[in-house]
Amino acid sequence: MSTATLSPSPPAQGDEVAQFRAFLRDDATRKVVEQVIGELMIPHATVVSGGIEKAIEALGRNRSPRLLLVDIAGLELPLSAINELADVCEPGVTVIAIGDRNDVGLFRDLISRGVFDYLVKPVTPSLLQRSLLNAAEGTSAPRQTNRLGRLVAFVGARGGVGTTMLAANTAWSIANLRQRRVAAVDLDLQFGSLGLALDLEPSHGLREAMESSSRVDGLYLERAMIKQSQTLHVLSAEEPLDDTLLTDSVALDLLLKELRARFHYVVLDVPRVVSPAWQYVLQSASNLVLVSEPSLAAMRDTLRIMSLLPTCNASCQLTLVANRVGEHKTGELSRAEFEKGVGRPLDVLLPFDPRAIAGAVNSGQPVAGGRSPVARGIAQLTDIVCGAPQAAKRRLLSLPAWLGGKE
Length: 407
Ligand SMILES: Nc1ncnc2c1ncn2[C@@H]1O[C@H](COP(=O)(O)OP(=O)(O)O)[C@@H](O)[C@H]1O
Ligand SMILES: [Mg+2]
Fold this sequence. Notes:
By secondary structure, the protein is α/β, with parallel strands linked by helices.
């Protein structure tokens, strides 16, 4: 028998993450679990009475543990319960299910939905211990089943088109209106303005995390992030302009993986300088929100960036946004001209509305929290990123005709 223990994670500051929680229906299993917790010396472990329904209810309100044991015995639709659990859980949680059906089909379905292991009752201490150690060590695990949060990259076709404004407001909306955990990261360490757009001080530690992979771990990130709210955590910097930054792709990769294991969405404000980091982000993003404006130069660069995707990241979901529409009375491309030029319809159009933007700054409330047409456009964009096409369609109808609605 292995003598390894589940290594205690250092206590996180603020909202602490439990190492282990079990939601169990029957006393026999509960006794076995408590015995194994003792033998493995798992710190911060709790056992709760009640099955997966109780877990769904509890995790909807609290931080998820690293390792979660849920009882699915007696359920008619265990897979829908697992799907529901996945919706409320943080992405990086390792889930082990315990049930009463000795059924290979069910086992395979659970694994394909990201469950790490499935144990059939009566569970023995040695079986449970082996499963927990596999889950904790990862290395001896049969496969990597952890899910990751979505990586949503905001890239501007030109400078000043509103990329930061949209990244900040979309992150804010997903976190505060949809209650999902969001990490917003400004990859421009010197000129970035994501923190400013959210009325936050720059955080400390992003540069170190991007320069050296050895710095990146969960505790470091917990400390480095500025919390705009319980659900929106921000990493930004204001590094001296006379410093040469030595950002490293391996460190960036690790940083993003750590964040994606902890947050449902990682929103990136990507600077418009083609660098290894820029290329890495384009290759690994789940969603690319390409922000443009109705000018010839922006149309050209939209097309150039779009044309990279099929070869570098074919599965990436592209959302094309035209912002600042109507800013210039003359010389602006029409919607039809722009769409013809890029060979694709625009997904979201936002009007130029300095009043709404200034109003938001004065009230200290993000523009997405208001009722302006810009706020409606951001809501539409948020629906597209999070996948709610029906809601998006409804909002589209309420926009003026030029902006895509019906009169
Ligand atoms: N739809 C809009 N209407 C009016 N002002 C806007 C709009 N979108 C962005 N802005 C303003 O334009 C400026 C540039 O936006 P920003 O998000 O910093 O652009 P980028 O990140 O693409 O350089 C900011 O002052 C921002 O508040
Ligand atoms: Mg910007």
